[in-house]
Specification:
CATH topology of the domain at 56-241: Rhomboid-like fold
Pfam family, one: Rhomboid_2
Order of helices and strands: HEEHHHHHHHHHHHHH
Shape: globular
Number of helices: 14
Strand order of the largest sheet: 1-2
Number of strands: 2
Keywords: Membrane, Transmembrane, Transmembrane helix
Helix content: 55-70%
Distance between the termini: 72 Å
Strand content: under 5%
Radius of gyration: 28 Å
CATH superfamily of the domain at 56-241: Rhomboid-like
């Protein structure tokens, strides 16, 4: 008996809460994270684990990352001519937007701009996923789609005007335009409005740095218009996202006010006997 009690207490880390044993006897300590039973504090690791995207907490972000990973792998292993043909069909350049606008807007968001997928994992983990945890999957997808669509349409409108006025050549109307950067920037802009003031300023500062860096390194008219537009779309949705979502049973609550109150059975019986 002495050896058993010593073994139960020696393996217990400090600061853990006891849990009831199956036999109803002595309560055994339980650690929140078994890997931290050697005197390590679990608060930082718990903070990180609670913010990692998971299919349960972030179905939209994780599902989208799976799609992007699949198309990125396909682009690396498939026939280059086939990949080029599919990406050209998905491009939101001026000519494709005029001929097949819905297909171009939808399929252009299924590819990453380049052969590397890992940066988008971190981009989604720090923008789309935390936004989804705060506003829900449906509204997070709406923010992403709004940034993608508005950023694409406005940038291509500016391109068309520049071509019509002779400031750029007509070949820009056929340049490949795919990727998810507009949706990510819109999500970052929307997320900033849901953070405390200090976090909001940091998020907006980081977003502005990303936009400026993209303009200086790429020096492309489409990027120079689309990226700041998408960021402003996310900022413009602050007021809508700060409102609590409507409950599905809200209509039933309004109808219930007009329903007659139920009379207790004892009162009804006494009135009937009288």
């Amino acid at each position: 008996m002495a050896d058993a009690s010593f073994g139960a207490s020696a393996g217990a880390p400090v600061g853990t809460s006891p849990a009831p044993s199956p036999a109803g006897g002595r309560r055994l300590p339980v650690t929140p994270l078994a890997c931290l039973r050697f005197g390590l504090r679990d608060a930082p690791l718990r903070w990180v684990l609670e913010r990692l995207p998971t299919p349960r907490r972030n179905p939209f972000a994780v599902g989208y990352l799976v799609v992007l990973a699949s198309t990125t792998i396909f682009a690396q292993v498939a026939n280059p001519d086939l990949v080029h043909q599919l990406q050209a069909m998905s491009s939101t350049d001026g000519h494709h937007l005029l001929r097949t606008p819905l297909r171009s807007l939808l399929m252009s968001g299924l590819w990453v701009a380049g052969p590397v997928w890992m940066p988008y994992l971190w981009a989604y983990a720090f923008t789309v996923a935390p936004l989804e945890r705060r506003v829900g999957s449906l509204r997070a997808a709406g923010v992403f789609a709004a940034g993608h669509v508005v950023g694409t349409l406005l940038s291509q409108l500016v391109v068309a005007i520049a071509v019509a006025t002779g400031k750029v050549g007509p070949s820009i109307l056929d340049e490949l335009d795919i990727g998810v950067s507009y949706g990510v920037l819109a999500s970052l802009g929307a997320l900033a409005g849901l953070l405390p003031p200090r976090g909001r300023y940091l998020a907006l500062g980081g977003a502005v740095l990303l936009v400026v860096h993209g303009i200086m390194t790429d020096q492309d008219l489409i990027t120079g218009v689309g990226h700041p537009t998408a960021l402003l779309v996310g900022i413009g949705l602050w007021g809508l996202l700060r409102r609590p979502p409507r409950r599905p049973g809200g209509g039933r609550g309004r109808v219930a006010r007009w329903m007659p109150r139920r009379v207790p059975r004892q009162i009804a019986l006494s009135e009937h006997s009288a």
